[in-house]
């Protein structure tokens, strides 16, 4: 029951906290406002080993665990979520499918550069007409000799169009199962493959410094050996990847929620109204106290999910609970922090303005809040 971080985890947390405060915070406002991708910050995170935290040393990683990644995400998101989601997607959606399900040859080819942050990987599951209904996949892949021929499109894909993106793993219909259901497999498509087109980046409400695109595949040919994992197991494989990812998104959400507390406490001490700092007034005190309660509770939820995951126990329900509680906390805290800041909270030059813009997607991405409730109910036997 001891929730104290190990020496290794605490050292990592402190290192990332310092990086976020001293390196990310001074520059991210301008990067976010321009809608640029933070290549320099990504390179520095790669040099720190953050992209390789849960990957073994044999494949270029740090040999740590998934909880270490979560701690890094929380500290980054206390300052900015665009940088944090670039790390989260690059690891949990880009590298981990290859790490979990790839052949030895696939791991040797792709993981070292992904673990070093020199390259980014992406995960193409969502489609324009699918959304949360990932089983509604329409993208197809048929074998033609020793090549897969892929046709279709994917939507809202993070890290898919940067100059350092190396591979996108896509789910596609590769046949029909004996019971008539779609056979869905996962296939790796290297960046620059003929027939693979990346559209213009989306104009988004938030996460303005992260990379998100729609992808198109028009008779895109890749070697048959680019199949990731077993044929027909692509959907099941990525459901397990999403369980891990939900714990990571919960950690990121906690970071945003805690960042709202940090900024509000600082502002409440400095801003004066009616002859006193606004933190003198009980209305502001109670609002910030409620924000701290949400962040603290959400942190306990993702710690509990991560603990079960690391012990090798089933954690689907706990991951859904953590993601639901933490994303709600992020959204509620962002709204309250904006209220504490008043008119300044509506200005992009203040972090809470970015936090408010970034919070909403956390209730949608990697499974909506409604999907989390559905998963929790199913795990209860309903």
Automatic annotation (TrEMBL):
Q: Which GO terms describe its molecular function?
A: oxidoreductase activity
* Record-annotated Acyl-CoA dehydrogenase/oxidase C-terminal domain positions: 232-380
Q: Which SUPFAM superfamilies match?
A: Acyl-CoA dehydrogenase C-terminal domain-like, Acyl-CoA dehydrogenase NM domain-like
Top enzyme class of this protein? oxidoreductase
Q: Does the keyword Oxidoreductase apply?
A: yes
Gene3D superfamilies, per this entry? Acyl-CoA dehydrogenase/oxidase, N-terminal domain, Butyryl-CoA Dehydrogenase, subunit A, domain 2, Butyryl-CoA Dehydrogenase, subunit A, domain 3
What Enzyme Commission number(s) apply to this enzyme? 1.-.-.-
Q: Which domain of life is it from?
A: Bacteria
Similarity annotation: Belongs to the acyl-CoA dehydrogenase family.
The segment(s) forming the Acyl-CoA dehydrogenase/oxidase N-terminal domain are 6-118
Kindly give the Pfam families that the UniProt entry links to this protein: Acyl-CoA_dh_1, Acyl-CoA_dh_M, Acyl-CoA_dh_N
Supply the name of the protein: Acyl-CoA dehydrogenase family protein
Known cofactor(s): FAD
Which PANTHER family does the entry link to?
ACYL-COA DEHYDROGENASE, ISOVALERYL-COA DEHYDROGENASE, MITOCHONDRIAL-RELATED
In its UniProt entry, the species of origin is given as Pseudonocardia aurantiaca
Cited InterPro entries = Acyl-CoA_DH_CS, Acyl-CoA_Oxase/DH_mid-dom, Acyl-CoA_Oxase/DH_mid-dom_sf, AcylCo_DH-like_C, AcylCo_DH/oxidase_C, AcylCoA_DH/ox_N, AcylCoA_DH/ox_N_sf, AcylCoA_DH/oxidase_NM_dom_sf
Q: Keyword annotations for this protein?
A: FAD, Flavoprotein, Oxidoreductase
Tell me which residues make up the Acyl-CoA oxidase/dehydrogenase middle domain. 122-220
């Amino acid at each position: 029951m001891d929730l104290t971080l190990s020496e290794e985890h605490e050292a990592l947390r402190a290192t990332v906290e310092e990086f976020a405060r001293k390196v990310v915070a001074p520059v991210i406002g301008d990067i976010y406002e321009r809608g640029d991708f933070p290549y320099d910050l990504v390179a520095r995170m790669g040099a720190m080993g953050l992209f390789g935290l849960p990957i073994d040393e044999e494949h270029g990683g740090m040999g740590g665990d998934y909880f270490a990644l979560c701690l890094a995400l929380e500290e980054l998101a206390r300052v900015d979520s665009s940088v944090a989601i670039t790390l989260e997607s690059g690891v949990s959606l880009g590298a981990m499918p290859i790490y979990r399900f790839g052949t030895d040859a696939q791991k040797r080819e792709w993981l070292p550069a992904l673990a070093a942050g020199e390259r980014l990987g992406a995960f193409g599951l969502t489609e324009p007409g699918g959304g949360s209904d990932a089983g509604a996949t329409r993208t197809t892949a048929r074998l033609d000799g020793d090549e897969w021929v892929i046709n279709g499109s994917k939507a809202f894909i993070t890290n898919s169009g940067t100059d350092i993106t190396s591979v996108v793993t896509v789910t596609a219909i590769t046949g029909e199962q004996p019971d008539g259901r779609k056979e869905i497999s996962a296939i790796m498509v290297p960046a620059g493959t003929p027939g693979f087109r990346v559209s213009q980046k989306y104009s988004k409400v938030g996460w303005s410094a992260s990379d998100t695109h729609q992808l198109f595949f028009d008779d895109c040919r890749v070697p048959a050996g680019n199949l990731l994992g077993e044929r027909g197991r692509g959907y099941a494989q990525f459901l397990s990847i999403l369980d891990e990812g939900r714990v990571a998104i919960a950690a990121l959400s906690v970071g945003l929620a805690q960042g709202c507390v940090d900024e509000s406490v600082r502002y409440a001490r400095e801003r004066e109204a009616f002859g006193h700092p606004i933190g003198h007034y009980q209305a502001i005190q109670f609002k910030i106290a409620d924000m701290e309660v949400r962040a603290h509770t959400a942190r306990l939820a993702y710690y509990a999910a991560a603990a079960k995951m690391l012990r090798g126990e089933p954690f689907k329900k706990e991951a859904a609970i953590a993601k639901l509680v933490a994303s709600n906390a992020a959204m509620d805290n962002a709204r309250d922090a904006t209220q504490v800041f008043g008119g300044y909270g509506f200005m992009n030059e203040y972090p809470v303005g970015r936090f408010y813009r970034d919070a909403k997607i956390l209730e949608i991405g990697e499974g909506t809040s409604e999907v989390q409730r559905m998963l929790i109910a199913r795990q209860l036997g309903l």
